[in-house]
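Bumping with the actual sequence this time:
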Amino acid sequence: MKIFKHLFNFYINSSIHVGLSCYALVRMTQHMFHIAADEPIANFVFFGTIVGYNFVKYDALARAKKLRMRKELKIIAVFSFFALFLVGFYFFQLQRITQIVAIAFLSITLLYTLPFFPNKKNARNWAGVKIYIVALCWVGVTLALPILNADVSITLDFYLKCIQRFILIFVLVLIFEIIDLANDDPHLQTVPQQIGVKQTKILGLLLLIPFYFLELLKSNFDANQLIVNLIIVILIALLLLFANEKRSKYYTSFWVESVPIIWWLMVLFL
């Protein structure tokens, strides 16, 4: 049982789970736009997410001098190095335009983590913008990159999916911000800090309405997708309603981040 707990914690702490979430959304994009299985872009996003998230998480801790190189962290560092090697391997299998846009999102990640100007904070600490940067990056990486790499024409469906995907990530991040409210620096000006937990939950629930009904505007409307999306909306609503500062770290790091994976699996099997 103890070994299982250690393995599970490594799975979460090494960002494999969040990597699978991004991978699932790439697969969702390929399904929605009828793109044949494109392994290089899906694997690039999976390993790139692992490297990016580990860099953001552990660089921030190191800068705050709260990071001690325990055995698990050394393993995560080695694991991230091999993941970085695979990122490079799959990067050179992508289309040139995809590579350029991927570098642009890498730059945003660096801006989010590293202070580029003397005596200035990184973008992660800019008041009120964190949630928008995270949502934008997820939309770009899980939606724009697969579309560009498959050379799919940009139509109204693409823009509708961008809005829908942005709303999905925005609402999921709201749950993180509610859970982290007690620990977040007040200067971050997260949504719950600005409007309170109750209003944040109402905002999230209201945003799920356009998320659901945007599906009706697609040119290749699929009735089955409405059923799947309804289940996802109910799941997210429940996670949002029951979110509070006393929840364990697994509430967000596992359950909330499982939503894209559950969404993809339902599309596969239903």
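The tokens above came from a reply further down the thread. DSSP finds twelve helices and no strands in the chain.
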